[in-house]
Amino acid sequence: MHSVASCGEWRGKLLTVVKTPDMFSLSEEDMRREVNSCVSLCHPGPNVLLLLVKPSKFSEENRTTLKFILSLFGHNAFKHSMVVITHEKEMSFSVNEVLRECGGRHYNMFDDNYGSLMQKIQEMTNQYNHLIKPSLNLVLFGRRAAEKTSAAKAILGQTELHSASNSSECVKHQGEVCGRWVSLVELPALYGKPQEAVMEESLRCISLCDPEGVHAFILVLPVAPLTDEDEGELETIQDTFSSRVNDFTMILFTVDSDPTDPAVLNFVSKDPNIQEVCQRYGQRPVIVNIKDKEQIHTLLDTVEQMRCTNKPCCYTAVTFARAQIDLITKNMVTRK
């Protein structure tokens, strides 16, 4: 079973309804896949989430699972949610808690008054006059710490960011960007570090993006030739996260001038080393003037395209574990 979209009209307005399968019976990976499918079927995102609840069957375990599912839609998904009570029954503690988190918004299906349901949906749409955009988890990596921090500030629109107590540790930043919640993890340079430290920071990086996982790894580079250290960093990333990371990686070239400058475009398109890296990461380079807030939309649009295209839609702790198994297997074969 997969999500299915139906289209119709209500009082002169086009209406798309997406019916999801029983999400509670799915694995976490399949939940992520279905949420991704649901959003893509009503692109660029749903206005309202209807949570069908049968009081007699809704447990605390169900509520925990529901909160996880809604977290995949974004940090403010409860604001856009309404409980639909499917059967007349005394409300349990778990149901009342969900109602509370939804601001009391609910509809009793046994009332058989669909006009009332549509009226409530219209009121919610008027109150929150924007779409639900799933949150994004991004990891900035590369050799140059200053460029990564500048990129983080530009993406989040913040002039000051807290720093890690140790410059060799991951640091996480968060904020609302273009109507969605964005989490940014700055991964410190890994090249040249002991293997134990590389593994520790790599795992911490993935853990900071739980439970959804990493939607995009962003390689931050200036418009300049790659150095030996840059090459070493890319090799370390490949060895640690495996080639699985390639599908989730894009390149961000940062400039403080016009990104359409012919000199900039010619360098990116003709430098053989840069082109080799672009080829490895699916030809997804983005050139952004970090002083121009409007250009952040272009960056997030590229990330959104990746999120909608990739199956699965994110690099999770499970993906990382599989990468380590691949690495161990490869080393064992090499030793033989």
From TrEMBL:
Keyword Nucleotide-binding applies: yes
Protein name: AIG1-type G domain-containing protein
UniProt xrefs under InterPro entries: G_AIG1 (IPR006703), GIMA/IAN/Toc (IPR045058), P-loop_NTPase (IPR027417)
UniProt keyword annotations, A-Z: GTP-binding, Nucleotide-binding
SUPFAM superfamilies: P-loop containing nucleoside triphosphate hydrolases (SSF52540)
Family statement: Belongs to the TRAFAC class TrmE-Era-EngA-EngB-Septin-like GTPase superfamily. AIG1/Toc34/Toc159-like paraseptin GTPase family. IAN subfamily.
GO molecular function: GTP binding
Organism from which the protein derives: Haplochromis burtoni (Burton's mouthbrooder)
One Pfam family per UniProt: AIG1
Residue ranges constituting the AIG1-type G domain according to the UniProt record: 133-324
Signal peptide annotation: none
Family matches, as Gene3D superfamilies: P-loop containing nucleotide triphosphate hydrolases (3.40.50.300)
